[in-house]
Write a structure and sequence with these properties.
The complex is a heterodimer of chains A (112) and B (114).
Chain A (H helix, E strand, L loop, with lengths): L2 E4 L4 E4 L4 E8 L5 E7 L6 E7 L4 E4 L2 E6 L4 E6 L8 E6 L14 E6 L1
Parallel strand pairs in A: 2-10
Antiparallel strand pairs in A: 1-3, 3-8, 4-5, 4-9, 6-7, 7-8, 9-10
Chain B lengths: L3 E4 L2 E4 L5 E7 L4 E9 L6 E7 L5 E2 L8 E7 L2 E6 L8 E9 L5 E2 L3 E5 L1
Classes of the chains: A mainly beta (112), B mainly beta (114).
Chain lengths: 112, 114
Amino acid sequence: SQKIEQNSEALNIQEGKTATLTCNYTNYSPAYLQWYRQDPGRGPVFLLLIRENEKEKRKERLKVTFDTTLKQSLFHITASQPADSATYLCAPPSYNTDKLIFGTGTRLQVFP
Amino acid sequence: GAVVSQHPSRVICKSGTSVKIECRSLDFQATTMFWYRQFPKQSLMLMATSNEGSKATYEQGVEKDKFLINHASLTLSTLTVTSAHPEDSSFYICSAVPRGGEQYFGPGTRLTVT
């Protein structure tokens, strides 16, 4: 079955550094992949969508890569700020549908 | 744009009662809405897909008679948890999909069943 893996351990980095979060998927090849931010007690907020024919996508301080050979997406936040502290979710669609499969998310903590 | 609201944001009910949660797309029409459930420190789990004008499709293991979904219009879907029990206490989140677009999520509803 399709499986999404994100590092469940929290990522702690210092303000100003680049945060890199990893999403690995197995047993299929999604046509696209979405990244969301979720704050405690809130619904996810859409950040970026990257398609299989796109190697990289950027939005302000965010950058997402999609390596279909490695079956991996990397999510980068450059010049990180304490306000970036949240849980980041990777969500590709399920095989042949638009239903999203969510990873468990990686909690990012940016300290001053 | 692409704002999704949920009401209520928090609800506490007694065991055996029913609770209705509303999901609205405020500035776009959504032919499809999804309902998710999230337990503490866990991932979002899809419960059902709500399609305007037709019956919802439920994921495996989700009881359709317990979680009633009605997608009455292109901007409103409701989830009713019938005969709620403490194990139904969770964070319920809906999402709406503009035609051909990505999913936009509501702020979630915290349900506590006592």
